[in-house]
Amino acid sequence: MTEQLYYDLHLHSCLSPCGDNDMTPSNIAGMAALKGLDVIALTDHNSCRNCPALLRAAAHFGLVALPGMELCTMEEVHVLCLFANLNDALDFDAAVYSHILPIDNDEALFGQQLYYDENDAVCGTEPRLLISATDIPFADVFDFAARYHGLMIPAHIDKSSTSLLSNLGFVPPGSQFSCFELQRMKNLHRVRRDNPYLEHCTVICDSDAHYLEHIHEPEHTLLCAERTPEAVLAALTSAP
Predict the structure, then answer these.
(1) What's phi and psi for 63, nearest 5 deg?
(2) Above 70 in pLDDT, residue 239?
(3) With contact defined as beta carbons under 8 Å apart, do 71 and 42 qualify?
(4) DSSP secondary-structure letter at 197?
(5) Strand order in the sheet with 3-11
(6) pLDDT digit string (tens) for 150-175?
(7) What is the mean pLDDT of residues 183-205?
């Protein structure tokens, strides 16, 4: 038996310097539940460090939650990396951290980068600027994430910046990803027409929310075998 689950799999907490300080883990989970979503993922820039608090908050509200990251490649292409297991996500986080450019965050310019605990209290700040590029090439992300049982999803590919199609201009030969994200589902026909590789990929549409009010309403669904992170990842890699 399968179930249609409402999702938003691209959300930023206040750990992302561009994220509003109201985007705490508990606030995110509470707003997602209030809006009627079933599945969410936290995908801060180059970090999974607020995922433990988000997963606890999501469980309190009865949501399925995936730990994740929005990785910025050396070409400044944004890629979602989603995981079923928190420990895998945190191991991936540690591996990615060594690839982030060693640039200090300027809070006055970029904003704060706040870590939260399970009680939704600030427990630290991240000194390194998380929105800078890593030195990881786009071509390496699929295998890099897979080593930690993660799923690679090129983010908002119809966006005019920081996307696969805007920054590289094409889907590289040898690509292995099987799911991609759009900002607006109305662009699906065009991007598939212009990039035949995408015809065989699953497509999702997420909010990329940096503010609570921008979290998606219950509009987009995934057909899942059960209400688990593993089933969500399986749905994302099923044939379109």
Answers:
(1) -95, 150
(2) no
(3) no
(4) G
(5) 151-154, 78-82, 64-72, 39-45, 3-11, 221-224
(6) 999 999 999 999 999 999 999 999 99
(7) 97
Q: Is the pTM of this model over 0.85?
A: yes
Nearest to 95 by CA among 145, 52, 45, 50: 145
Burial-class residue 118 by CB neighbours within 10 Å (0-12, 13-18, 19+).
middle
What's the start-to-end Cα distance of the chain, in Å? Answer: 19
- Nearest CA to 3 out of 177, 154, 226 is that of 226
Q: Considering only CA atoms, which of 157, 126, 153 is closest in space to residue 69?
A: 153
Which residue is it, tokens 């669904």?
221
Q: Assign 100 a pLDDT band (cuts: 50, 70, 90).
A: very high
- Rg, C-alpha atoms of the chain: 16
> What does the pLDDT average to over 39-45?
98
